[in-house]
Amino acid sequence: QQTATIVYTSGTTGWPKGVMLSHGNILSNIEGFVPLVPLHAGQRLLSILPLSHVFERGTGHFGAYLLGLEVAYAERPDTVLRDMEASHPDIMIAVPRVFQLLYSRVRRGIEDRPGLLGRFLRRGAGIDQGGRPAARWQRSITRRLLVSNLRKKLGGRLRFFVSGGAPLDAEIARFFIELGLPVIEGYGMTEASPVIAANPLEAIRPGTVGQFLPNLEGRIAADGEILVRGPSVMLGYWNNESATRETLVDGWLHTGDVGSLDPDGYLHISDRKKDLIVNSAGENIPPQKIELRLMAQTLIDQAVVFGDRMPYLMALIFPNQELLKERVGTHADGAATRKAIQAAISTA
């Protein structure tokens, strides 16, 4: 139970706090996620997150080394595809932004492909707007064509991805499952060393973050907050007893996240407790789901939804500038730009 490391939180919801994690915290977390995330000796993992990131330290550093995996390190975030082709990984662990960019690139290639083959692939991949659903044989052929090309670009050996650190849009998760490259989405926080829940590889449910680790207890409080108890919960905050008392109550870690459990024990995250929008009618609206739907569109790079004490919601949209220029032209007027973005919003 001696302190092994002090990891500072990102400070997105307040001042950064130093999370004290013991050797036992880290080891128990690895023991807990291995039954759900199958890591084993001989696999090769491409590490793309900074080693200061607690998710990377727990899975791609401590966990990988302890279990005998080979670890290759990406040069930079913008060289990930080149590094995958060179290192031939079996697994890649990343944050949703990486999968969003990869999804956008693959989808863009399908959308821009002309002729009958392009239409065939769009229908088979389920992105043919307004078209009738694809037959099973069409989905199968599309999957083979796309996966063969994509696997080569990803090194040729990739079995699955692991996503954590932020919510992954369910549409993106389903897209990769359909291609035979499943994304294991999990949930965690620095205070839990960090993994709290994960989808089992053989039973992934897009839109959920999976089941609580087998060595953790989890429950939903009366106000919807997710509470967790177990051996991987932190010792406390460094030199901050008041924050520790607020977060650890009777051994339960108050995550600050709002969620629910389905009958099979899969955890659904709604939003951060502090991020819920309360509109002028007093309704609680989680903006995260709307933002994810918007950012799943290739033309939308970032989106922020707000509307506290207002009768409607608004979104601040930052488009993909490169793709926008291709769609409407370099010298297009504001009306053409707004029309293209509005079409993406309507699709979302």
Largest β-sheet summary = 7 strands, mixed
Structural class: alpha+beta
Q: What's the CATH class of the largest domain, please?
A: Alpha Beta
The chain-level mean pLDDT equals 89
Contiguous runs where pLDDT drops below 50 for at least 5 residues: none
Query: Domains counted in the coordinates: how many?
Result: 2
Number of helices, counting only DSSP H or I runs of 4 residues or more = 11
Number of E-state strands: 19
CATH topology descriptor of the largest domain? Rossmann fold
Description:
- With 348 residues, this protein is α+β, with helices and mostly antiparallel strands.
- The protein has 2 domains: 270 residues, Rossmann fold, CATH 3.40.50.12780; 72 residues, GMP Synthetase, Chain A, domain 3 (2-Layer Sandwich), CATH 3.30.300.
- Helices cover 36% and strands 24% of the residues.
- The chain contains 11 helices and 19 strands.
- Strands 4-3-5-6-7-8-9 form a 7-stranded mixed sheet, sandwiched between helices. Strands 10, 11, 13, 14 and 15 form a 5-stranded antiparallel sheet that branches.
- The mean pLDDT is 89.
- It holds the Pfam family AMP-binding_C_3.
